[in-house]
Design brief:
Length: 296
């Protein structure tokens, strides 16, 4: 703005005139610096945007990875549960298999036992058939004596037995046969001596047990100590008479049972009469006896 003088006239300042011959240069440095700053700002903005995108992608990737890890962990938990269930099922199957194997083994043993029992029963049945046949044969051979009541053919303790009442053979309290008793014993001996299987030499091998029995009444006037001694003496007398009738003494075995193997209770006269007897027992052959090895 111009300054006023004392007269009120505004006087403009004189304009400075550059000196002649000096030219002003273009400001390259300033422009270069401006360009650099502009480029740096653009690069900074670009990298800021680029890294922000990468950061966002990283965040998204992390979220995805976290979700996948959670899903994987849940899947692992499910697999563990399924594995536990499968393990329990396998253990149950193993237990059931063991039980089935044990039951199968037990059933097999039972079947084998039943088979063995059936085999034994078949043998016993055959033996019983053979004994019944022998008993029928004995009854036929001694038909007259059976019909007259002199003897009785029975099956006792699994053996064929010829039973003779003691009162038919012996007077009371003695071991000597009566005359009628000798005739009956001789008749039995004549019948038995040529019966039964033979060995290689043609000898009969059927063996007989001659057993004396008594009632339980004490002896009163007798030379024998007790019924046991009397029954043994009577069995020995019958055995000797059978030998005299032609039987092989090797096939005869006398013994006495006294009152210890009764047929009745000794509570009546009839029972005591039945208990006083001589029994001739057909003993089984060795081949008919069960093999001890088969019992194992």
């Amino acid at each position: 703005m111009g300054k006023g003088d004392s007269s009120g006239v505004v006087v403009k300042p004189a304009t400075a005139v550059p000196p002649k011959g000096k030219i002003r240069r273009f400001p390259w440095r300033l422009w270069l610096w401006a360009l650099l700053m502009t480029g740096a700002a653009g690069a900074g903005g670009y990298f800021t945007w680029h890294f922000r995108e990468q950061a966002n992608e990283a965040v998204d990737a992390r979220a995805t990875a976290t979700k996948l890890a959670a899903d994987a962990e849940a899947s692992v938990g499910t697999c563990k549960k399924e594995l536990d269930t499968a393990s329990k099922a396998a253990a149950t199957c193993t237990t059931e298999r063991g039980a089935l194997e044990k039951a199968s083994k037990t059933l097999g043993e039972q079947l084998k036992t039943n088979k063995d029992q059936l085999t034994e029963l078949a043998k016993v049945l055959e033996q019983n058939k053979a004994q019944l046949a022998s008993a029928a044969q004995f009854k036929t051979q001694f038909a007259k004596m059976v019909d007259s009541g002199a003897i009785e053919v029975t099956n006792r303790h699994g053996n064929i037995v010829l039973s003779l009442p003691a009162q038919v053979l012996f007077p009371s309290g003695v071991a000597e046969l009566s005359d009628d008793g000798k005739i009956k014993v001789h008749e039995i001996g004549f019948t038995l001596k040529d019966k039964g299987p033979k060995d290689d030499k043609g000898n009969y091998t059927a063996r007989y047990l001659v057993v004396g029995h008594s009632d339980n009444q004490p002896l009163r006037s007798s030379s024998y100590k007790d019924n046991w001694e009397l029954s043994t003496a009577r069995a020995l007398t019958v055995t000797r008479e059978l030998v005299a009738a032609g039987m092989n003494p090797k096939n005869l075995l006398p013994s006495g049972a006294g009152e210890h193997d009764p047929l009745g209770s000794n509570s009546s006269v009839k029972d005591m009469s039945r208990n006083r007897r001589i029994e001739i027992v057909l003993m089984p052959a060795i081949s008919e006896l069960p093999d001890p090895k088969e019992k194992k």
